[in-house]
């Protein structure tokens, strides 16, 4: 199966988004490195917006991951403090995999604790604790 990353149309769209944003992450200001073109209106829900440059936003890998996580939590009504076996078990199988992959990435990004904390209205050390606990819980659930 060809992924969307491999199509000419996608690569053209991605290139146009990065060029317009001067190869700079719109969230943290990182220039160059591992940059992604994020779909503001989701790829799956808005097929007509897939190749609209206006619907693109340049993000570094970490910021893309974070935005993806927040959107993902919101879509399923999940909160970082409420990630539990039950909550994960209720997710469709495909989303369980996405969730785990994204969460795995997220746990390694210590410098995002303050943003996670701000998002959930808790301090840095509480955010760190929540991410750590949730990661451990997820690892036990998914890889045990
Ligand atoms: Zn960034």
- Measured between the Cα atoms of the first and last residue, the distance is 30 Å
List the helices and strands in order: HEEHHHHH
User: Tally of extended strands?
Assistant: 2
Oligomer classification? single chain
Q: What ions, cofactors and ligands are bound?
A: zinc ion
Estimated helix fraction: 40-55%
Strand order of the largest sheet: 1-2
Cα radius of gyration in angstroms: 16 Å
Number of domains: 2
Mean pLDDT: 72
Percent range for β-strand residues: 5-15%
Low-pLDDT stretches: 107-111
Global structural class: mainly alpha
- Main sheet attributes: strand count, strand direction, barrel closure: 2 strands, antiparallel
Task: Provide a count of the helices.
Answer: 6
Task: Based on Cα principal axes, name the global outline.
Answer: globular
Please provide a written account of the structure.
By secondary structure, this protein is mainly alpha-helical. The protein has 2 domains: about 1-60, no CATH class; about 80-144. It has 6 helices and 2 strands; from the N terminus they run H-E-E-H-H-H-H-H. Helix 2 (about 60-75) crosses helix 4 (about 95-105), helix 4 crosses helix 6 (about 125-144) and helix 5 packs across helix 6. The longest helix is centred in the last third of the chain and has 20 residues, at about 125-144. About 20% of the residues are buried. Zinc ion (ZN) binds near residues 25, 28, 60, 62 and 63.
């Amino acid at each position: 199966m060809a992924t969307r990353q491999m199509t000419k149309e996608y690569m053209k769209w991605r290139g146009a988004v990065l060029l317009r944003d001067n190869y700079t992450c719109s969230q943290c200001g990182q220039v160059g490195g591992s940059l992604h073109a994020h779909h503001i209106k989701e790829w799956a829900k808005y097929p007509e917006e897939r190749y609209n440059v206006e619907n693109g936003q340049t993000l570094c890998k970490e910021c893309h991951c974070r935005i993806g996580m927040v959107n993902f939590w919101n879509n399923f009504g999940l909160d970082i403090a409420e990630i539990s076996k039950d909550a994960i078990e209720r997710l469709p199988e495909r989303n369980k995999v996405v969730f785990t992959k994204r969460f795995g990435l997220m746990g390694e990004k210590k410098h995002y604790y303050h943003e996670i904390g701000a998002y959930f209205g808790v301090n840095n050390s509480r955010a760190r604790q929540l991410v750590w606990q949730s990661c451990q819980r997820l690892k036990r659930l998914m890889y045990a």
